[in-house]
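I wish you would study the pair of lines that follows with an eye to the fold:

===
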Amino acid sequence: MEAENHTEVSQFLLLGLSDDPNLQPVLCGVFLSMYLFTVLGNLLIIVAISSDSHLHTPMYFFLSNLSFVDICFTSTTVPKMLVNVQAQSKSITYIGCLIQVCFLIIFSGMDTLLLTVMAYDRYVAICHPLYYMVIMNPRFCGFLVLMSWLIIFWVSLLHILLMRQLTFCVGTEIPHFFCELGQILKVACSDTLINNIVLYVSVTLLGVFPLTGILFSYSRIVSSLMRMSSAGGKYKAFSTCGSHLSVVSLFYGTSLGVYLSSALTHSSLHNSVASVMYTVVTPMLNPFIYSLRNKDVKEALRRLINLVASCL
């Protein structure tokens, strides 16, 4: 195929998870159910935290932001996939693909930064409890979230500007169910050296460094817990970290799975299935992890349900 300038490329083709027409209704039903569970579960967490004064603390402020990001993250990919399945179409416009890449970078990056901030919050709460409310004051918490948004916005903008410089062949096929930056760079018809360098640097800055910060925070937390003489104090302190540790393990575990799948196999199906884990499954499970493992959240949800029931 003859390479055309990127301004003349009007659309890409998303190959999706399967070409089997018999599987399309099943995929549509499964992904629609998962999407609804994700949105409703995370909305419940946000409403419960907003409506319960007992949860107006830094930890739950960050959790409500994480729930909001998870809703947006899933909404960036699943609705377009469902529309394509229902319309029996594989197309996505060039601008639509750019927008999808932009939001995917923003929301996946925000996940990593928020998880890092939440780890720091637990570190201060357990290792410096007397200074917790002084350090983690509302202004500082708002500053951390705002800086996270600003950092990831500029990273995303840089990737989009570099992607705009690429050329693509007419009828370019993306072996995925959404516009994933790494896959787009592989199918570009022009040199992508600069794009790949920036991609690897940003993955290091927004993946490895935050994970290192999380591990450092928990190493200090474990060290502090080992010095505690009270078994009850150890259990209470660890219980406040259990949900966050579960979410961190799930997010980084699935992300690592996507990376290894991409590095070890050239199968687009394996890469797509692995991507489902961190784009759909992880945001869906986060509300359940926090509600099932956190007594305060369970109590807030119970009070919210009772309030709604009494109003009805």
